[in-house]
Amino acid sequence: MNDLCADIGYKSINHAGEELCGDHVDVVDKEDGSTVIVLADGLGSGVKASILSTLTSKIISTMMAEGLSIEECVSTIASTLPVTSEHGVAYSTFTIVNLVRNHTAELIQYDNPHVILIREGEVTDYPMTELHIEGKTIYRSSIRLQEDDVFVAMSDGCPHASADVAYNNDWKREDIADFMAGMSLTGYTAKVLSTMLVDECDKLYGYTPRDDATACVIRIRRRVPMSILFGPPADRDDSNKMMNLFFSKEGKHIICGGTTAAIAAKYLRKPLKAKAEIDTQSDVPPTAEIEGVDLVTEGVVTMSKVLAYARNYLQGNESYEEWNYGHDGASRICQLLFEEATDINFYVGRAVNPAHQGAGLPIDFSIKMNIVEELSNCLRSMGKRLKVSYF
Question: Are 139 and 145 in contact (CB under 8 A)?
């Protein structure tokens, strides 16, 4: 096991007029620390294609997570999926990326555009072995992972995207590879990279896609630990214990909540200072400063905004520019947790804030705990390793 990890992000757009996408991506973490990513593309579009792609990705990812070999998985799915007599193609194509304990990527590709590998900002060729299973031609590759490797898997709705009835022959896999190679140098997350590619396809389609289009990006990076502290402990006597644990962790430290910040300032014997500049245009409370702490924000209101951004990030990611370029507390937390952190220690105090009780105020203890639970789930869905400790 090394200190590399995979940042995985994907986005789809539906065929114009269809409510369901005919492509499906499934990500499964195995007990040995490996990760299986499957991108399946069902024939056609709409409900039938959605069912076929979902079944394909679920069957493959489940079998591999249970420890079956790639050959067994591919043989089973290849023999299960028939070929249409009309078009002579399978009802569902698929791409499998098996990240073996973050040191090797095993690629299995069947009739989808071949995965693009970008290494050190350059499009890089990799060896492929041709297999014939159940009359189907399948390509297999094994690639030793390096830091900053970027893999781009996609359905065939991405190449040739065009607003015209005919395919756009000026937007080939090679052009997509060049487009993504330039973007890979920016340091964007896998989610943002996949969003940028699919948005470009959508634009080329004239925002009326004639096919489902899905991109799944995998970015290999070093692990980055980070800790966030939200609320004071229920028992004041636990304050020092909580602070000891929080500040003993590697990486950057974020504190949310005025009372919590005051406790931390006292523990560090440093002054708690309000920020001199206040953004009057933002609905997020201003931040503060403590020497030795990377970010100090208000509590529940700020974290509610972070949760809203997290929900959007996992869906259409339309709010990306708002928080990515923002300077308020919520935006800066998102920049740190969504884009930088890979391993997050979340320390949550169970104390009830008397200022939030009564008088019909909408903020209460249950809201705070719900924020913690849902935000934790969102971060895990982003692929973060998360440990939550309550005090």
Answer: no
pLDDT of 70-102, one tens digit each?
778 777 776 676 665 555 555 788 999 999 988
The pTM assigned to this predicted structure is 0.86
The residues near 377 (Cβ < 8 Å, ≥ 6 apart) are none
Q: In terms of domains, do 306 and 383 share one? A: yes
CA distance 284 to 273: 18
Domain that holds residue 257: 225-390
- The DSSP code sequence of 198-260 is HHHHHHHTTT--SS-EEEEEEEEEE--EEEEEES--SSGGGHHHHHHHHHHSSSEEEEESHHH
CATH of the domain at 123: 3.60.40.10
Which of 195, 222, 249 terminates a domain? The answer is 222
Report residue 245 as tokens: 């644990």
Asked whether residue 340 falls in the same domain as residue 195, the answer is no
Instruction: Name every residue whose Cβ is closer than 8 Å to that of residue 222 and which is 6 or more positions away in sequence.
Output: 3, 4, 5, 147, 342
